[in-house]
Amino acid sequence: MKKRKTSLTVITCLCLCLCLLCIVSGCAKSGSSEDSLKVFYLNSTRTGILSRMYEPDSQTVEEQAGELLEQLALDYPEEGLSGPVKGFKIQDYSIEENTITIDCSAGYKDLEKITEKLVRATIVNTICGIEEINKVTIRVNGALLVDERGNKSVNMTPEQFIYNSGSEMLNYERTEMHLYFASEDGKKLVDTYRTVVYNGNIPMEKLVAEQIIKGPKGDFNYPTINAEAKVVNVLTRDNICTITFDKTFLTNPYPVEPEVAIYSIVNSLTELPSIRQVQILIDGEEHPVFMEHYSLDSENLLQKNTKIVKTKEN
């Protein structure tokens, strides 16, 4: 009887060990999903953008980039996904200082205008999913692409291509924004132009404000608004844009004058033809104070301030 009991105990322990092994192996398997990257494809009609997860086999940045570029040439019809690299080939690529330069065959230039912009968006968003890569330059037979506005396909970032996560990028549009950021000393505004590809369902006013929050891309101007700030709501009526931010907007980690920060929003929004005045509200705050001492009067309608903009004379 004692021997039988001992045998049962051993069997029980073995079962427990097997269960633990299964759990551990299961955890290891699920943990591998952390290495997965999002690959962007066109939908079956090639009018929008969808994505799927992919786990690369390679470890180095160069090899992972190669894997992702190969994925972009594949179709997944059962998932309604069409490979964006179609009608042309990726001939070569090189990586230097967090920037990948991709050289495409001549067929790239034959892509229909809208399709080309969508293809460009899928390539940039996919490759920048690799942590060590944050900019993409596309060449065709060694030459940079130049659009109708003279913009070159150099140092492109995912922020230039805005889409609704988890949904198709329909109503695709491309626009050039006139934005204002801070001068180096934080006492003036510096204007710049930025070309953005976006979902037409997003209000232009919100898009402008979010671009200011994201900050500048060049070396000659500087951020003005807390990068953690969120746009809660935006409404334009009778040429007045009422924009509501969350409370994070009130704190600013950047060494800029309060007026410079506020008018980076106001001046940028009033560049839109439909807006002449701006009203800034803070969600949940009746008497908000920006940067600890600049009062944001909810009744105050702000207009474009050109005196605060840096020129050659000042």
Sheet with the most strands, sense and barrel status? 4 strands, mixed
Unreliable sequence segments: 1-32, 164-170
Radius of gyration in whole Å, from Cα?
26 Å
Strand percentage lies at: 25-35%
- Output the number of helix runs: 5
- Global outline: elongated
Strand elements, count: 15
- What is the domain total for the residues? 2
Kindly state the percentage of residues in helix: 25-40%
Name the helix and strand elements from N-terminus to C-terminus, one letter apiece. Answer: HEEHEEEHEEEEHEEHEEEE
Mean pLDDT: 84
List the helices and strands and how they pair.
Blueprint: H1 2-31, E1 37-43, E2 49-54, H2 61-71, E3 81-82, E4 90-96, E5 99-104, H3 113-127, E6 135-140, E7 143-144, E8 172-182, E9 189-199, H4 204-214, E10 231-237, E11 240-245, H5 258-269, E12 277-282, E13 289-290, E14 294-295, E15 302-303
Helix pairs in contact: 4-5
What does this protein look like?
- By secondary structure, this protein is an alpha+beta fold.
- It folds into two domains: 36-159, no CATH class; 172-303, no CATH class.
- Helix content is 25%, strand content 26%.
- The protein has helices spanning 2-31, 61-71, 113-127, 204-214, 258-269; strands at 37-43, 49-54, 81-82, 90-96, 99-104, 135-140, 143-144, 172-182, 189-199, 231-237, 240-245, 277-282, 289-290, 294-295, 302-303.
- Strands 4-5-6-7 form a four-stranded mixed β-sheet, covered by helices on one side. Strands 10-11-12-15 form a four-stranded mixed β-sheet, with helices on one face.
- A hairpin with a 2-residue loop joins β4 and β5 (99-104).
- α4 packs antiparallel against α5 (258-269).
- The longest helix has 30 residues, at 2-31.
- The protein is elongated and about 55 Å long.
- The model is unreliable at 1-32 and 164-170 (pLDDT under 50).
